[in-house]
Amino acid sequence: MLFPLSVTSFDITKLLSEFPAYSTYSNYLTQTQLATEINTRQTITVLAVDNSGMAPISGKPMDVIKKILSVHVILDYYDDKKFQNMRNQNVTVTTLFQASGQAKGQEGFLKLTDLSPGAVTFTSASDPNGPGADLVKPVLEQPYNISVVQISTVIMPPSLLPSSNATSHAPAPAPVVSPAPVESPVPETIPFTMPPVPVVSPVPVVSPAPLAGPVKSPVPVVSPVPVSAPVAVPAPVPVMSPGPVPAMSPAEAPKNEEGAKSGVMKSDANNALALFLTFSSIYVLLSTSAYNAYS
């Protein structure tokens, strides 16, 4: 239902408060302070999105939301009648984002395309082949001052989005020549060195004290000469003195002549034996004396 207004000044949030279906859109205009900028304009068209179509910008940074919503404010007056009379025209219009001085290239412009009477599409001039929004219906208008129309979804120029959320329709960036890979230096192998083993100092050997006087050579010990046992000296044989020879009578002389001869021979033998024994005893005595003398 269209509500024409005759008041020359307006408050966009107050106007939208009559339509709860656009409460999310109105809240974002207040939070980003776009409502204040819109209220200072004399001729303006606001492309509003209902609550169900605001999901694409939910959760994004507030500065990004402000830039996106400022693209939804056309600095010209378009009401339902004007859209109907486009007659298959393609029109490029200026938005509030272009007036902010932050737009780059064609970011601040919208392309309006009339496909058939009353069927109009809105796309970003920076991405004319990208997804756009369709005209749904007029919401309110104050002729030649403000017009609010509903579109199907949020128009999101890819260049205004964070790089992680940019769509595939964003202009391809210029190829960047990757720098030549720099070879990482091979880490130097540090040889493992065993810690030095502490050397134990040898215990000093105490030299024997020098002797005060000259050292006497030990007296050689003469091994004792074995002493031979003394030879037993046989006892001297007693020399028997010849006894007196009895005088024989002439008559007996011839009878005892042979016995006398025999006695003489025995006496001579005894004498010789005695001499031998005597000399033997003397020899033994002399030998023993000589041995003892040399020992």
What is the N-to-C order of secondary-structure elements (H for helix, E for strand)? HHHEHEHEHEEEEH
Strand proportion, as a percent range, falls in 5-15%
Q: Can you summarize the main beta sheet?
A: 7 strands, mixed
Contiguous helical run count? 7
Percentage of residues assigned to helices: 25-40%
**What ranges have pLDDT less than 50 throughout 5 or more consecutive residues?**
3-8, 164-177, 211-215, 217-255
Write down the overall mean pLDDT.
74
Dominant shape = rod-shaped
Q: Please state the CA-atom Rg, rounded to the nearest Å.
A: 80 Å
Q: What is the terminal-to-terminal distance?
A: 170 Å
Strands of the biggest beta sheet: in what spatial order?
2-1-7-6-5-4-3
Structural class: alpha+beta
Number of strands: 7
Topology (SSEs and partners):
Blueprint: H1 12-16, H2 23-31, H3 34-39, E1 44-48, H4 62-70, E2 73-74, H5 80-84, E3 90-94, H6 96-99, E4 109-116, E5 119-124, E6 133-142, E7 146-151, H7 253-294
Parallel strand pairs: 1-7
Antiparallel strand pairs: 1-2, 3-4, 4-5, 5-6, 6-7
